[in-house]
Amino acid sequence: MARSSLLLYRRLSSPASKCFFFLPATLALFTILFILFYIFTTSTFFTSHQHRHSFHLKHQLGSFPPPPLPPKLSSFSLNNSGFKNGTVDLPKKSPFNAVVGGNHETVSEVSSRSHFGSKGNFVNDIEVFHDEDMFLEDYREMNKSLKIYVYPHSRNDPFAHALLPVDSEPGGNYASESYFKKALMKSHFITRDPNKADLFFLPFSIARLRHDPRIGTEAIQYFIRDYIFNISRKYPYWNRTGGADHFYVACHSIGRSVMAKAIEVKNNAIQIVCSSSYFLSGYIPHKDASLPQVWPRTGDPPNLASSKRNKLAFFAGAINSPVREKLVKFWRNDSEIFAHFGRVKTPYADQLLGSKFCLHVKGFEVNTARIADSLYYGCVPIIIANYYDLPFADILNWKSFSVAVVTVDIPLLKQILQRITSDEYLRLQCNVLKVRKHFQWHVPSIDFDAFSMVMYELWLRRSSV
Predict the structure, then answer these.
(1) pTM score, whole prediction
(2) How far apart are the C-alpha atoms of 174 and 253, rounded to whole Å?
(3) Which of 80, 226, 298, 362 is deepest in the core (most CB within 10 A)?
(4) Can you give the three-state secondary structure of 238-267, one letter per residue?
(5) Radius of gyration (Cα) for the chain, nearest Å?
(6) SS3 label, residue 271
(7) Per-residue confidence (pLDDT) for residue 230, from 0 to 100
(8) Distance between CA 443 and CA 210 in Å, rounded?
C-alpha cells in the first residue's frame, strides 16, 4: 500500500504531470482575460459610466464653463403683432437650430428622446397628425359605417344611475366618463340591432358605482363580475368572441383594478381608460386606448391675443407622488418656474394664461386634467409622467405641441425649456391651438372633438376582432 502511494506521488510530481495540470488552467485564464477585453472594447457600459462620472466631476470642479444658452423666453408674449384672428403668425423659415448643442451629457439619454435629436438638438415637428390624409379618409369611413350596440337598461333598474347617461351636465375630474356616454347615446353610431353592431358598449360607470353606498370601492369588482355573467347568459354576443368586441369607458383610476374578478374583461375587452400606463399590467397597449381626462369648462376658449406669458413654467397641485416631491424640491423657490404645493391664491386660469409652459406631473396615476387645461388656455404642456400612453397618440404627433421630460431630468428642467427658441415655441403653441379642439367634449358631439376622437380609436380596434 505504501509502495503504491509512493508511485502515485512520483507520477504527479513529474514534469509531464505538472504541465498537464497547469496548461488547462493557463488557457482558461487567457480565455477569461480575452472575454473581458472584448467586452471592454465593444460595450458602452464601461465608457459611458466613466464618461458621465468624468463630466459630473468636471462640472463640479468648474473646469469648463456651461454651454451658452439661447435668448430666454421670459420677455416673449403674444401681442397683436404675433397673434391675429386666433392664430399665431410664424416666421416663414423654420430654423430648427441645434439649440442644445453637443453637450448631451447634461440631458438624460432617455429624457427627451422624442424631442431631442441624436446630437442633442431640439426636434420640433410641424405636423400635428402622423398622417392627416389617412386620418381624414378613415374618419369619413368611420362616420358612415361604425355601429355600436349598447346593452339596454330601464330607468327602473336599481342601478340605473350607473348604467344610464346622467341627466345633468357632467362635472369634476372624471367627467370624461359621463360625457362619453351622453354623447354616444345622442350619436348616429347607435344601432338597436345587435346583428349590425361592430362593437358592444358595457355602460356601467365606475365612478358612480364607487360612490354608491350599496357597493363602494371593495364591491365594484363583484358587480362587474355579475354584470358580465348576466349579459353572457341573456345575450349571445359576449360568448361569441369572449368579449373581444366589447368595450367600457372609465376615468377613475380604480377602473383598472376592479376587473380582478372579471379577467376576461381585462384581457379581451377594449378598455378606454384615463389611467393608461405602459408600466401597469392591467392596461394592454394597442388593445386598450387612452381617454383624455378633461375638466369641463363652459363657453369658448379664451382669447389669447391679450395674454402675456411672463412665467417660464407653472405647476400647482397636491404633492401625492415622489415625482411631484422631486419637482417641488428643486423648483419651489425659483423665480421662473412656479412649482406650488396645493391651491394657488390667484385664479388658476390666470396662472395658465400667464405661463409659457404648463407642467403635467404624475400624481397617484400618470393622468391628470392638466394636459387638457394647458391646451385650453394655449399653454404648451410639459409632460413629466413616465410610461404614459398619451391620448390619441396613434393619431396626433405629440412632439409637435408638447415636450416630454422624464423624471430623472427634473433638475435640468429649466435648462431644457430655456433652450427652446422663440420660433420653436411659437410653433409649439400654434399647434396647441390646432389640437385643443380634440380635447373638448360636446353633447351632442361635433366633428373632431374628444368624443369623435375616442370613436376613431374604437373604429381602429374593431378590425382586430
Answers:
(1) 0.75
(2) 10
(3) 362
(4) HHHHCCCCEEEEECCCHHHHHHHHCHHHHH
(5) 29
(6) strand
(7) 97
(8) 24
Query: What is the spatial order of strands in the sheet that 403-404 belongs to?
Result: 337-341, 311-317, 355-361, 380-384, 403-404
311-317 and 337-341 beta bridge pairing: parallel
SS3 state of residue 44: coil
- Beta bridge partners of residue 398, listed in sequence order: none
Instruction: Report H helices in 43-149.
Output: 45-61, 132-145
Angle of the 450-462 helix axis to the 175-185 helix axis, nearest 10: 70
Is a pLDDT exceeding 50 seen at residue 255? yes
Per DSSP, the residues of 124-145 read ----SBS-HHHHHHHHHHHHHH
| Residue among 168, 239, 160 nearest 204 (CA) | 160
Question: Do residues 172 and 432 make contact, with C-beta atoms less than 8 angstroms apart?
Answer: no
Express each pLDDT in 20-68 by its tens digit: 556 667 777 777 776 666 555 444 333 333 333 333 323 333 333 333 4
Contacts of 129 (CB under 8 A, 6+ apart): 135, 395, 396, 397
